[in-house]
Amino acid sequence: MSGANPDHAGAAHANDSGVHVWLVPTPVGNLGDITLRAVEVLRAADAVACEDTRRTGTLLAHLGISRPLVRLDAHTMSARAGRVLEHYPRLAYVSDAGTPGISDPGAELVSLALSLGGAVEALPGATAFVPALVVSGLPTARFTFEGFLPRSGRERRERLEAIAARPETSLIYESPHRLGDTLQDLARVCGDHRQASVTRELSKRFEETRRDNLQALSQYFAQDVRGEIVIVVAGHAGGGDLLPGQTETDFVALARELAQQGHEARHIRALLQQRGMRKNEAYSLSLAVQSVTPAHTAPSTLHTED
User: Fold this and answer.
1) What is the DSSP letter of 150?
2) Which of 167, 169, 301, 300 is nearest to 238 (CA)?
3) Among 103, 131, 140, 230, which residue's Cβ finds the most Cβ atoms within 10 Å?
């Protein structure tokens, strides 16, 4: 290890601004997952920017590294990042865990550094969603990473419906106290019997991956759990996620239930088609149930609790 210059650990590009940002992955659980190159860059950078100075300080102490620590999180990035790069142009950035720039403020720092004519390097290393995908047992050739879903409202509903409709595997980050509600929402829009997996506490002592259908998983994780969560959901199979022997009566019951919950006709139609109903029939049924649903029925939404 050179230890004197992070450029030795990988190709660095000269730039007029002098700004050079390294995105340094940190372990998602097991501290042994830090890479030699990450240690080298953290040692040689002018400073280390991070989301939580206490957490990152503990990691640096474990590694025997003493560098200035600067807080750059979602609340401070916009106001402070420019000044930080002025004082520390050769900056290493880490998130709380995993690869920076994925579901964290690192992406904003990258944009700023590039706008200043600086160089940006992303080191390979730890991340949560790739191991969770690989161990899920679901198809890995094509997948969509959703990150954290919106907590409520139309955007959340539309994102869930997109997950239900797409043919490839979907990956979702979720917090422990929202896991049960999100699994219930997924079961509602994808169908109870869509296959999925839930991985938590990756690389830690109590790492767990549970593989089952969404209904069973929502029941299993009904109570709060610990750890960061990755949900992996199988893609739409094309023929719907129906139980064997499902009948037209089942479609009607589902459509009525969705209408009573306050879903618009277009959402009912989309969900019926995802369950295997033909397009024209789904269109007619969605209009029919809307016309007979009492106007005063209070619309219900997907889970929105904090």
Assistant:
1) P
2) 167
3) 230
